[in-house]
Amino acid sequence: MDRNQIGKWLKNPGKMANKYSFHVVYFCTGCGIIEVPPSITTRWDAERFGIIPVATPRQANLFLITGYVSTKTLAAIIRTYEQMPEPKYTVAFGSCPINGGMYYDSYNTITSLDKYIPVDGYIAGCMPRPEAIFIGVTHLWKLIDMDKADGYKRYREDYVHYRANQEQILGELDWPPLFSKENL
Amino acid sequence: MSLELLLIIAFSGAFLTYLSGKISSQLRDGVAVLISLGLVAIVSFLYNVQTETVFYQGFFGISLILRMNSLAWFFAIAIVSFTALCIIYSLSYMKDCERSNYYYFMMLLINASMLTIVLAGDLVTFFVAWEIMSWSTFLLISYNRNGALQAGIKYIVLSLIGSMCMLVGILSIYTSFGTVNIADVANHLTPSSVGYKLFLLIIFSITFGIKNAIMPLHTWLPDAYAESPSPFSAVLSGMLTRMGVFGFLLIMYVIVGMKTTLHLGRGFLSFNTILCWLGAITIVIPTFIAMLQNDAKKLLAWHGIGQGGYMIVGIAFGTSLGAAGGIFHTLNHATYIVLLFLSVGAIEYSTNGLRDLNSLGGLFKKMPIAFFGGLLGISGLIGVPLTNGFVSKWLIYKTLILGNAPFLAFAALLGTWGTVLSVYKFLHNLFLGQLPEEHKEIKKAPLTMQIPIVILSFTIILFGILPGLPLKVINSIIVAAGFQALDINIWGVTSETGTLNMLNIFAAIAVFGAIFWGIFKVARKSTPVDQYDNYAAGAAVPKNKYHYTVEYYAPFYRMGKPFLKDIFDMFYNRIAEAIGSICDSVRKIYTGYVGSYVMYIVLFIASLIFVQLTWSIF
Amino acid sequence: MNIIALFVSPLIALIAGMFFLGLSRKISARIQWRYGPPIYQPVIDVIRSFSQKSITHGKFFDFGIILSLSSSFVLILFLPIGKLCALTSGGLIAFLYLMLMGPFGIALSGAAAANPNSSIGISRKFLLALAYEVPLLLVLLTVMTHYHTISLVEIVNIQANSGWAFGSWALILPGIAYLLILPAILGMRPFEVVGAAQEISSGPIAEFGGKHLAFYTLQHALHVFVGIALFVDIFLGGWTFFGLLNPLAGTVWAVIFGIIIFLLKMTLVLFIGLFVNAVYPRFRIEQAMQYLWKWPTLISFVGLIIVVLTK
Amino acid sequence: MVNPILLIVVPLGLAFALPIVNLISKKIIKYIPVLAFLFNLILSLLLIPKVLEQTIIVKIGGFHPPFGINLFVGPVGILFSTLIALAGFLVSIYALSYIKEGPKEKYHILYLLLLTGATGVVLTGDMFNLFVFFEILCISSYALVAYLGNKAGIESSIKYLIQGSVGSSLLLLGIGLLYGQLGTLNMADIANQINSISSPSIFVPMIFIITGLGIEAAIFPLNAWLPDAHSSAPSSISAILSGIAIEVGLYAVIRVIFTIFNASSFLMFFVFLGVLTLLIGEMSAFSQKNIKRMLAYSSIGQIGLIMFAISLNTQLGISAGFFQMISHTLGKGLLFLSVGFLIYKTGSMKISSFEGIGKKMPITSLLFTIGAFSIVGLPPFAGFASKFMIIKAALTTGQLLFTVLIGVILLGTVIEGAYFFKVIQSIYFKGTTDIIKRDEAPLIALISMSIFVLLIIFIGVYPDFIARILNSAASEFINRIDYIRSVLG
Amino acid sequence: MEFLSNYIYYIGAFGLIFIGLFIILVKHNLIKVIIGIGILDTGVNLFLIAVGYISKGTAPIFSKAGLDANNMVDPVPQALVLTSIVIGVAILALALSLAIRLYKHYGTLDLRKIKEQRW
């Protein structure tokens, strides 16, 4: 833990603060959410790493997708992701968001989430234990340190393609593009 | 400039406006604005003038007098300026309304009669002007038809009861002392008995209490405010209702005299204590009833009642701070309630007459001027520091707390916190939240409607930061009434028991505001988003439905609704019904059968004989 | 002195407020047998929020939160922190009104966001405020009537001579009432109905992100500070501590130790609040109102009557 | 010197000349009443200054008063005759355009007779003459009520007739009893001798006379005919009945009480009766749907108010009562006249049918409104000045009872205000909002009504104008000795 | 008996008056009521005559010698009655003509049914 190194703080306070203050939006799409309560309560106590759940995406910087993603929930996931302020990180939790998991051949399950929104890290397993979340978070710290957790930047750069992918699966989207031409 | 000329201009201006309206509407608008602004100019030139003239002696040989002093000037300038603003506002608000000649005529007539009331130097002039004001107000309240008719009847009946009381009072003064000159009456009254003074105070208090809508007598007000045309609602709530305050000042501190009024009775059973408590009740109950209202103007109307309570408490408490606070609050109340009514009027204008709190929202993007008017208005109504409402309320609170009346102070403070709730609801439901699709394209409020709003907003802030401007005049009023003078500075009030310095509060807020505004600007720039890009748990935001307005304080309504009824209104309605049915049965004695009529004749003879035999009166 | 106070007291309040926020998280964690975040976690959160790119729903959305934060700072100037008090104009009444402005700014900002969750939260906030203001006003009126002044500084000074208000028999009931409503003033459980994250997505601040959230957190810290400081000033004698500072009277040390004593007292009061916070579930808004209008109001009312009668 | 007898002779003569004129030309007959009352008005106005200086006693046929019939032209008489001539003049102008159907020559004859009777009643100094003029007044009004010949008119007329003839029989009976005891019919002579006989034997004729006259004066239980008759008659006649007839009746009652019987102790009873009349009138009017009936009931209320004022038995009270009579004549006359055309244009007497009439007939509606304001007693109209005076008179007595009764009276005023304001609302603020074609009353009628309005405002603003005549009228009632002395010499 | 002879006219007159009043009060038929008015009128007239009448009196002609002024019948009531009779006739005529018109409108003369004008 380099939380107490003042030099690093002075160098880039924003990055450091982002690392140690993960406000998480848990997207409870499937069974993965069952692992979250133990991890934030007394047994594993995620708060000691600065991780706390928040209610709205506006206040969050970490998006945890816990479970399979159906076509229907994809719209909600995209919206929520777009509403999060930058910098923001996405972590897919469990097998299902990675490749569909046990629902890989279902007609309405999204098998690869990163076609629609950028995913900064995956925590594999069915289910991953709470410890895996912490390992995932420490990995994310490293990625942030190395500026490799740049999903939100990629989203901005490749927005046209992401939008095209989203429209391909969801049809006409009922919200305007996040980035207009000027914003890009 | 003599006072007669002023009144002649005021009254003839009204007629002139009506007549010019027959020629063309532009001419009429011009004349109306010219007259009202001219009156403002004339009255402001009369600042610090002290005159008294007998202008007419043809009414039963009574010398009718006009006089000008600081009290009269204070109210006069307020009356003419607020009316002038409302007239300017009306130019576009009333543009396409029927009978607009009539409307302007009545507005100016009411203006002139109010001016006469405050300038009256004798009670007969006072009464005549009071009555002219009453009936012309009735004619204008009824202007909007439908619901307004009931409101008008309610108003005029209560008003008549009030003026009849006053008539009895005035004539009893006249018969006892042979004069109605206010100054003379005050002199004559000094040696008369306590009972007589109390009688006068009570009978006049009924009149002024009805006009000022003190709690058991308030029932005409909500309907009347809600149903009148908005610019007139503004005048009605701003100045016309406050003629009651003027009346209270007149009867308590000019006619009966300060020293006497404050020593009538003992302890809780003294006149001013009871009046204070009525005022306290008037503050609390209407404020909470206002929370239940769904009609923007009705909500404001209930606040009009509630704020009237502050004035009464301040004036009736009878210290120099309190009286100054009460009088100042009258002016402040006028400023912000006029502003609020004009803002609501702007919404009505733009949305074709909508003022239902449940069907509007998000208008602050479309009507910024009206919104800032509304915001400053409610800030003044709450008494947020830096608005004028704060200063006057502060004066009242302070006098109550240091005058060892914590329960009254509690009522007053509680009223303020109730006010916060309901006026926030007002602002929120009209201006904030989601803008309905149908109001995306609304009529722009024209310049003539925006100018009064801007002027009033500016006034609120000006008097909030530099309360010394009006307080100087008020100080001379209370000194004339026999109170101790206050130590007034331009920025507030100095005293040993607590100084109010608005300027340093302003400086503090300004400095911190500037600092944090700077920080805010320096910090990372934020992206502006549409109202539909909003948190809805990932779902699409429903259009026109994503606004929480209906039953805004639902938990409180569930708790409070059984208790928050206007029981007085119900009581009066029941009395009215009872009188109606009694009247209906009384006329049944005219049966239509001649035999019974002849029987009445025989019975009359019999009763005459009976009376003679029993009491032998002849 | 006033000039110093002008610069120092906001800083003290801000630091202490953030410290209290961190402390409360830590203490709660410890009560729940957790390790808990570091005590400076709220600072990290604020920096994080500042670094994020927020969204805005228009100028007014920004205006409300700036108004809220700056008026909260102005409020600090009116509060005697130890012996420091920058402004006295208007006394406790002005103070009460300024206390209103912070939530009012947030309410304006939240409602401008056009989010019904915010609106519901604000409606709850105001209802809760109405509910606790009734006993609070009674309490403050009792104190003002008892000491016959409207100045906070004077109240503290009188206590320096005559002992703490909480120790005098006349003001013990109001003191108890204040303690009972303290969680409601601080927005802690069991009165955490306003920002109920589970039902209304943290209520008024549902649309706040980035710098808006940071401002809100700062404002919240100040609000906690003020709520407790008011109690300490009114009932626990502010900087006084049984004549401990009498030998130092007139020196700079008296001021510094005064502030330290003041902050210690505040910490003590915070602890009481936190114990309640940690073990109680949440009231519904009606239950909260009924509770607040029942016992605290009754107690403070009796207290006021006693004070009036013994006057 | 102009002879006051012309006041009676000219209209009476013209009334009989009218059928002959009718044979010559049918067109000019309607101008005859106008001329007659213009003459009367000018004559009365000329007489006022003289009368105020000294009372004029006209001895008819040169016989001296106890033996011959005399006219007593005092301030009261001249006040009333002016009022009658004024109202008669204005209403006859109004009638030029209003009376278009029916047997017109009969209308004009009866109209002349009615007002002749009224003038006679107020000017005569002889008891039996009073009865005769009274009968002229009554019979012509019976006939005029039935003038339209419709169901309502006939019914009201016959009811009025039955009650009226019972009343006149009682009056005659009373006069007979009085004559039987005193052997004289001259009012001054009776007044002179009245104290010489025992009180029970005065009391019996008095109650008969009061009852007989009271029927025409619409004192409370005797006024059942009034709403019917006033509402069924043509509006011009209603105006006269309301403005003149009942007030002349009341004049006769108080003349009898004050001058002849000197029964001022009896007035206490009249105070209560007045308040009762007022309350019953106003309450009955309150929920009326028929406008003319409402106005008729309102007249009852006003009569009660006048009774109250006069029964105060003070100089101020009596002059206030006369003032109220004047303002009532003007106000109620104006109301009936304006309502006449409102009814004419809408074809209904229902108040609900007047919705929106303010747009169609703005001037008439305005006149109605001013009349209503005056009747309710709002400044700056005449009704306010008179009400002011009445309350002042009541409070000047300094008795608690009168103060309490003033409260009751003002309550009646509030009720009156309520129903009048309801009508005003439905005239202006109900009904269609569309633009309607103007359909105003004829110019000649508007002129006559406007004169009413001008008088109402003028008297309301400058009541001192009539203060002197009111004062001397009141003294005439207070100082009955002067009355007796001036007649008997 | 002497009482009766002295007051017989008065008794008769008041008898007629009361009969007339009774008819007006009690009868529902308009014609009967009008008859009642007639009787009432007659009674009053009789009363007036009786006031001036002196039993075995003479006509009040002073120019004729030998007539005692104290024994003369008072001429004034007779003059009054003459007028009164004329008035009564007028009223009766008017009443009857009105009754005819009323019958045309209502088809009845029962006053209990002629109650359109009321309240």
Distinct helical segment count of chain D: 20
Helical residue percent band of chain D:
over 70%
Q: Percent of residues of chain A in beta strands? A: 5-15%
Q: What class do helices, strands and sheet pairing of chain A give?
A: alpha/beta
Helix fraction bin of chain A: 25-40%
Radius of gyration of chain D: 21 Å
| Oligomeric state | heteropentamer
Secondary-structure element series of chain D: HHEEHHHHHHHHHHHHHHHHHH
* Protein chains sharing the most extensive interface: B-C, 74 and 80 residues
How many discrete structural domains of chain D?
1
Molecular structure report:
The complex is a heteropentamer of chains A (184), B (618), C (311), D (489) and E (119). Among the domains of chain B are: 265-516, no CATH class; 567-615. Chain B has 24 helices and 6 strands. Chain B has helices at 3-23, 25-45, 70-93, 100-119, 123-141, 147-177, 182-189, 194-212, 221-227, 230-240, 243-255, 258-261, 271-290, 296-317, 320-350, 368-382, 388-402, 406-431, 447-465, 468-480, 502-522, 554-560, 567-586, 594-615, and strands at 51-59, 62-68, 487-489, 492-494, 500-501, 527-528. Chain B has a 3-stranded antiparallel beta sheet with strand order 3-4-5. In chain B, a hairpin with a 2-residue loop joins strand 1 (51-59) and strand 2. The relative contact order of chain B is 0.07. Chain C has one domain (2-310). Chain C has helices at 2-31, 41-51, 59-77, 91-112, 116-147, 152-162, 172-186, 197-200, 210-235, 252-279, 285-310; one strand at residues 55-56. The two termini of chain C are 35 Å apart. Chain C is globular. Chain D has 489 residues and is an all-alpha fold. Chain D has 20 helices and 2 strands. Chain D has a two-stranded antiparallel ribbon with strand order 1-2. With 119 residues, chain E is an all-alpha fold. Chain E has one domain (2-55, 70-106): Helix Hairpins, CATH 1.10.287. Chain E has 3 helices and no strands. Chain E has helices spanning 2-26, 30-52, 75-106. Classes of the chains: A alpha/beta (184), B mainly alpha (618), C mainly alpha (311), D mainly alpha (489), E mainly alpha (119). Chains in contact: A-B, A-C, B-C, B-D, B-E, D-E.
List the SSEs and their pairings:
The complex is a heteropentamer of chains A (184), B (618), C (311), D (489) and E (119).
Chain B (H helix, E strand, L loop, with lengths): L2 H21 L1 H21 L5 E9 L2 E7 L1 H24 L6 H20 L3 H19 L5 H31 L4 H8 L4 H19 L8 H7 L2 H11 L2 H13 L2 H4 L9 H20 L5 H22 L2 H31 L17 H15 L5 H15 L3 H26 L15 H19 L2 H13 L6 E3 L2 E3 L5 E2 H21 L4 E2 L25 H7 L6 H20 L7 H22 L3
Antiparallel strand pairs in B: 1-2, 3-4, 4-5
Helix pairs in contact in B: 1-2, 1-4, 2-3, 3-4, 3-10, 3-15, 3-19, 4-5, 5-6, 5-10, 6-8, 6-9, 8-11, 9-10, 9-14, 10-15, 11-14, 13-14, 13-18, 14-15, 14-17, 14-18, 15-16, 15-17, 15-19, 15-20, 16-18, 16-19, 17-18, 17-19
Chain C lengths: L1 H30 L9 H11 L3 E2 L2 H19 L13 H22 L3 H32 L4 H11 L9 H15 L10 H4 L9 H26 L16 H28 L5 H26 L1
Helix pairs in contact in C: 1-3, 1-9, 1-10, 2-9, 3-4, 3-9, 4-5, 5-7, 5-11, 7-9, 7-11, 9-10
Chain D lengths: L5 H19 L6 H23 L2 E4 L10 E4 L1 H24 L5 H20 L3 H19 L5 H32 L4 H7 L5 H19 L7 H8 L2 H26 L6 H20 L4 H21 L3 H32 L10 H4 L1 H15 L5 H16 L2 H29 L14 H19 L2 H15 L1 H9 L1
Antiparallel strand pairs in D: 1-2
Helix pairs in contact in D: 1-2, 1-4, 2-3, 3-4, 3-10, 3-13, 3-18, 3-19, 4-5, 4-10, 5-6, 5-10, 6-8, 6-9, 7-20, 8-10, 9-10, 9-12, 10-12, 10-13, 11-12, 11-17, 12-13, 12-17, 13-15, 13-16, 13-18, 13-19, 15-17, 15-18, 16-18
